[in-house]
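Continuing from yesterday's entry. The apo prediction looked reasonable, so today I'm repeating it with magnesium ion included to see how the binding region is handled. Same sequence as before; SMILES copied from the compound registry.
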Amino acid sequence: MYKAIFVDIDDTLLDYVPCCREAFDAAMDTLSAEGGLSAERSVFCQRSGLFNLFFDIAGRLFSEAKHGKYTIAEVMDLYPKEFIAAIGYPDSAVEPFKHAFRAAWGKTHTLVPEAEEMLETLKNKGYRLFAASNSFGHLQRSRLEQAGILHYFEDTFISMDIGYDKPDIRFYQEALRRAGLKSGEVLMIGDSMTTDIEGAKNAGMDALFFDRRNNASLLELIKEL
Ligand SMILES: [Mg+2]
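Holo prediction written out below.
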């Protein structure tokens, strides 16, 4: 029935929390090296719940972006700024932290269980596969490549390249246009009810919700396809 499948990246294919933790630790190490934060203090911060603070700040801002308060590009600048202010470090630490986080993020590639098997199965069934994600294109492609799964995708539709963020209907319309597909020919798979499921449905596509928080199985999810 479907010719193609759009697949979300974070928390559908790549495991968001460990990736975030890895990039956060690298960014804290940079504060230690360049921002005058002692190595002992950096280790203390990493182990003392500061990651939770960072994660909460980023989570709140991304959630507000889903509801249209900010663009993803704005959030990418806002969360390092808010975090550095929250831990009482000077503004001069924002840029080194942000750049170190992004550089490290582009290398993070912990796979969600069964992600590769799902892509292999879908590919073998003849579906055209496309990634659809809110982030920087070059970072997401680098992560997929390092996870060894970039080759499954005919193209990657990433919000910063497309010019709109999911769930904006224009993100999906532009992705469909680039793929040369009609909305009825595509199924979206993702873990966010807002950005993936509602967004795709508003654009006239069908969507499958991956219930990541309840440890759903990706292979189970696609078994009817
Ligand atoms: Mg996701």
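Comparison notes:
- The radius of gyration is 18 Å.
- The chain has two domains: 4-15+111-221, 16-105.
Will overlay with the apo model tomorrow.
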